[in-house]
Design brief:
By secondary structure, this protein is of the alpha+beta class. The protein has three helices and seven strands. The strands form three sheets. A three-stranded antiparallel beta sheet has the order 1-2-3. A two-stranded parallel sheet has the order 4-7. A hairpin with a 5-residue loop joins strand 1 and strand 2. Helix 1 crosses helix 2. The protein is flat and about 55 Å long.
């Protein structure tokens, strides 16, 4: 998988031997967003690095383990729709946000 971002921040994903797969990734990201909204998800914890779930870095597509700053397609879709995204190294921050959300819900509910 080769990943690139254009200056506008849009992803371009190309699978070796398959070709351009960006639209497939976007469709999957939209489905993930739809399920998250249906379930009332308040925040997401995703594994950093992938072209789908990376929230701070994504692999550069060279299969050498190199990463570059950026967000995966699903992480970006969730963020655009107001669902905070954390990576596995941010569990404490995610737990704190969830506790704050639960506390505010108790106060208003």
């Amino acid at each position: 998988m080769l990943c690139a971002a254009d200056p506008g921040g849009d992803a371009r994903l190309v699978a070796l031997g398959v070709g351009h797969v960006t639209n497939l990734f976007r469709l999957a990201a939209r489905r993930a967003l739809d399920r998250a909204v249906e379930a009332g998800v308040a925040l997401a914890i995703l594994v950093d690095g992938s072209p789908t779930c990376g929230s701070s870095v994504i692999y550069d597509g060279s299969f050498t383990g190199r990463t570059m700053p950026g967000r995966g397609v699903a992480a970006e879709e969730l963020l655009r729709h107001g669902i905070p995204v954390f990576h596995e190294g941010q569990l404490a921050q995610a737990a704190a946000m969830l506790a704050d959300l639960e506390k505010s819900e108790r106060c208003t509910g």
